[in-house]
């Protein structure tokens, strides 16, 4: 029943969904003090804005764009195949994908929480197969909705556990493509502390381990959300792997975020200390507790 309703709503113009999403973003910001505080703290501490006036203006845009990111999932996940395909109105850098395919060592697509990150895999799998890592949502009833939205065309999902990691390795060893969110906070033992916008962030090691084990090409992709519901502009950029590590990965994410900082998910709890993970010295000195 829910899927049927979402497919009906997906017929609405993207501009309408984005308008409703912007209102939703402000509603959540007003009714959830913890959400609002984390968003403000992460944004202001990042250094992407300077001065009260500029930061306040950027904050207003961030709140609205965060809401758009939720509402647009209706169009991206549940629109008809032809409508979803038309949402991608521009792309630059696809040639790096073709060059990586020619090398035959697999491709690791890394997509930050920036713009319409769900659009990246759906654009890619219209052209080539890809396996994306999947972490079940906390609300069990959302799981079938999420899977239905992410598995169309040549897309498959792998669980965020040891079985999924093995699937990723096999896929890359056969010259395939895998996708993950490089700025998603991992569990204890699955990350290292690395600088992210001037603060220590527990950063996943999976992308680096996969690249070193397989020699795969790492490509950063950002689906820029265009104004007035005009769709998305995808940007593909190959990352250098000669000195590829977690710090380099975070710097690459920072570079993309600075292009369109209003479209980054600043409300995400990027700086939490996972339960069981050791705290970096900076946290002890600053007296921060993080969130378990």
In short:
This protein is α/β, with parallel strands linked by helices and 292 residues long.
- Helix and strand sequence: HHHHHEHEHEHEHEEEHEEHH
Strand order of the largest sheet: 1-9-8-2-5-3-4
Helix percentage range = 40-55%
Overall spatial form: globular
Question: β content, as a range?
Answer: 15-25%
Radius of gyration: 19 Å
β-strand number: 9
Main sheet summary: 7 strands, mixed
Secondary-structure-based class equals alpha/beta
| Number of contiguous helices | 12
For the termini, the CA-CA separation is: 36 Å
Oligomer: single chain
Uncertain stretches of 5 or more adjacent residues:
287-292
**Mean pLDDT across every amino acid position:** 92
Would you write up a description of this structure?
The chain is an alpha/beta fold and 292 residues long. The chain has a domain at 87-286. Helices cover 48% and strands 18% of the residues. It contains twelve helices and nine strands. It has helices at residues 2-9, 14-31, 33-46, 52-78, 81-87, 95-103, 117-124, 143-150, 162-173, 206-214, 246-259, 281-286, and strands at residues 88-92, 107-110, 130-134, 155-159, 177-180, 191-196, 199-204, 217-225, 232-239. Helix 9 (162-173) runs parallel beside helix 10.
Furnish the topology, listing elements before pairings.
Blueprint: H1 2-9, H2 14-31, H3 33-46, H4 52-78, H5 81-87, E1 88-92, H6 95-103, E2 107-110, H7 117-124, E3 130-134, H8 143-150, E4 155-159, H9 162-173, E5 177-180, E6 191-196, E7 199-204, H10 206-214, E8 217-225, E9 232-239, H11 246-259, H12 281-286
Parallel strand pairs: 1-9, 2-5, 2-8, 3-4, 3-5
Antiparallel strand pairs: 6-7, 8-9
Helix pairs in contact: 2-4, 4-8, 9-10
